[in-house]
Design goal:
Collagenase (Catalytic Domain), about 280 residues, alpha/beta
């Protein structure tokens, strides 16, 4: 049986025997760090757990120093699952591994250089099938859920865009190509507004259509309420792309300051200790 058939069989039936049982500490970590996860009900959290294990079963998470923690794996998997949550059969067939670097890097994967300003990159050529992320920026994307930026989600959106064989700013695997003309017209108008300084969308979105789709998706998952208020057509288009109930995202974000830390201190989640975890799929 091929790997993808094994994965799909497990997704709808039973898990392979070599996968670990889900640990409460992993839930605690996601509860603390990932607003999207906090918004899920108990049944959906169980599905999220299974999709995390499925992703890690098929995708290696590596680092330049060989030190990859379960915290790292959980955030990589969350980055992958959040944008395709509305697609239960989704699998990243164009990805074999995620490579974590200790800081921002350049196109040669060097850090500490004058041009080391890249925080995430989908590999091409010899790096085809790989996704490279700055580890601290991966964490920061989940620490600050109000800045409209999450590099993990951004790069996985590029992989979604590329799933049809071309990175063109329109994810055909999510939406029929017949809808591409109104989408590209909307993108052009939004890029024009960015260019003349009349938009609160990150300037990087004006680079090209591919980057616009990824940046707008970050905005959608981080600040859906603001996106809906300031860019209603864009918000509705992304709702249709991702088949997601953005109301649940809003609920998770609104509780960031209120939920008590899982350690029992009584302090808010984002003002207390980190949660150590261990034992995830390697």
């Amino acid at each position: 049986m091929t790997l993808i058939k094994k994965i799909l069989t497990w997704l709808f039936c039973e898990k392979p025997p070599d996968l670990p049982a889900w640990q409460p500490l992993w839930s605690d970590f996601l509860q603390k760090k990932v607003a999207f996860y906090r918004a899920l009900n108990a049944a959906d959290r169980d599905i999220f757990h299974r999709r995390v294990l499925l992703f890690l079963y098929a995708t290696a998470v590596e680092s330049s120093d060989g030190d990859v923690t379960d915290n790292d794996r959980l955030l990589v998997a969350a980055s992958a699952i959040i944008p395709v949550w509305g697609f239960p059969n989704w699998h990243y067939l164009n990805l074999q591994s995620v490579y974590l670097l200790p800081q921002a890097f350049n196109s040669e994967l060097e850090f500490g250089k004058p041009d080391s300003c890249i925080t995430g990159m989908v590999g091409t050529g010899q790096l085809s099938g790989k996704l490279v992320l700055s580890k601290p920026h991966l964490y920061y994307g989940f620490e600050n859920s109000r800045d409209k930026q999450n590099v993990g989600i951004h790069e996985f959106v590029h992989l979604i865009d590329m799933a049809d064989g071309e990175c063109d700013g329109f994810p055909e695997r999510l939406k029929d190509y017949a809808f591409s003309i109104p989408w590209f017209e909307l993108v052009r108008s939004k890029i024009d507004a960015i260019d003349i300084g009349q938009s609160n969308i990150n300037d990087y979105a004006a680079t090209n259509r591919q980057e616009f789709f990824a940046v707008a998706s970050e905005y959608f998952f981080e600040r859906p309420e603001m996106l809906e208020a300031k860019h209603p057509r864009l918000y509705q288009s992304l709702c249709e792309f991702y088949r997601q109930d953005a109301e649940s995202i809003k609920k998770g974000l609104s509780r960031v300051q209120l939920d008590p830390c899982v350690c029992g201190s009584g302090k808010p989640l984002n003002q207390c200790c980190d949660v150590p975890v261990s034992g995830l799929v390697k």
